[in-house]
Structure formats: C-alpha cells, structure tokens
Amino acid sequence: MNVLAIDTSTYVMGVAVLRDGQVAGEMVTHVKKNHSIRLMPAIRMVMEEADMKPEELDRIAVAEGPGSYTGVRIGVTTGKTMAWALGIPVVGVSSLEALAANGRYFDGLISPFIDARRGQVFTGLYRSRGGEVERVDEDRLILHEEWVTYVREKEEPVLFLSPDLLKHKELVGADAAINPADHLGRPSAIAFAGMKKEPGEAVHLFAPNYLRMAEAESKWLEAQKERE
Question: Are 62 and 7 in contact (CB under 8 A)?
C-alpha cells in the first residue's frame, strides 16, 4: 500500500511516504515555524525524492489531534483536500498514538502527552504488545499533576514521552525517556498506523479530534451565556 502521512499537530512538522508498505521517504522538522507555509513544499519534496506520483497513492493518513488547534486544522485540511482531489480515502491517527509508538519496546505503560497550557495536557495511556502499541486509556485533556498521580497508582513501570518534556520534567522525573529523539513524533508511525485503520465513508465527513473547543469558540460561548 502507498501512503502519504502528514503531521502538523505540534511544532514538530512531519511528512512521510510509504511505498508498498515500506518507508520510501520521510521529513521531520523540530522548529516552531509556520506549518501552513511549509507543509505543501515539504510534501512535494518528499514525494519527489520518493519518486512517487500523487495518483499512485492509495490513501492519506493524517494526525487528527489532539495538539495545537491551528496545527491540527492545517494538517487535516491539507489531507482532506488532497484525498478529495485524488479520490482516495483519508484516515486519522491520534497524535498521541503515533508518539506512543516511540516506546513500542518498553515493558510497561506508555504515557505520551502534549502541553495544553494552564497545567493541563493532552494525554492517554498505551501499552506495547509485540512491538505494536495499543490504547489502554482513552486520550483526554486533564491536569497533568492529576494524571501523573493516576498513572503511578497503577504501580507499573511507566514511560512518559512528550515534545514538551522540558515544561513538565520536574513532574514526570526519571520516568521520562532518556533519548531526546523519543519525545518527537514520527510521520512514518502515522503512516503505518493509518495503513491498518479502516477509512470512513466520505472524505468530507472526516473531522479532527481537538479534545476541546478552540479558545475563541470557548470565549464566544462564555460571552453568549453572560448576555443571557
């Protein structure tokens, strides 16, 4: 199967291409720059380097969130637009599931997380079985201190993974992965996960999983309540 994978859910921007189920090309950047400007040139470059034409793609896999509201929207919109134009399916992969794949050889619980500000994180709980990760607890938005307490009460080894580790290093302590590269999502993980998922019925029905409303929407609803 030939798959294009896109991830703009955090400041890490990634694009990968699978040809016949194998990684043919991958590009990842770890800098806080404008994804909306850089994504399409990155897709074009990876496709060209992999000698892959758009019409050869069987599906597009995209990080559906959670993460940066704007970042998730950019990746999902790009993936949906390309899938609709090419007449192929688009499948969503949890940003946290893809990050958890970096701990697929860890013997214990895997807790990927993304900073959500105000002491909160987007997180979930995963476990590795035979080199594949499976979800143990649903992805959620939660106070990180509350989540860390909950996970450690399970009295199992736990591995914390996050591109925002430095903001939460004191809280997770020695349970964080040692290798800095393990804290950064890989688009190839999204491609492999997306290859195994069943696509939805229609491209236009695919929606991101923000796990919370955009701040502007939340403020608007608060303003409406005050008026009432």
Answer: yes
The pair phi, psi for residue 5, each rounded to 5°, is: -115, 140
Which H or E run contains 116?
none
* Domains, the chain: 3-94+185-214 (3.30.420.40), 96-183 (3.30.420.200)
The answer for residues whose C-beta is within 8 angstroms of residue 74's C-beta and 6 or more apart is 8, 35, 36, 39
Q: Tokens for 133? A: 């990760």
Note the pLDDT tens digit of each residue in 150-191: 999 999 999 999 999 999 999 999 999 999 999 999 999 999
pTM score of the predicted model: 0.89
Number of other CB atoms surrounding residue 164 within 10 Å:
17
CA 138 to CA 150: how far, in whole Å?
A: 13
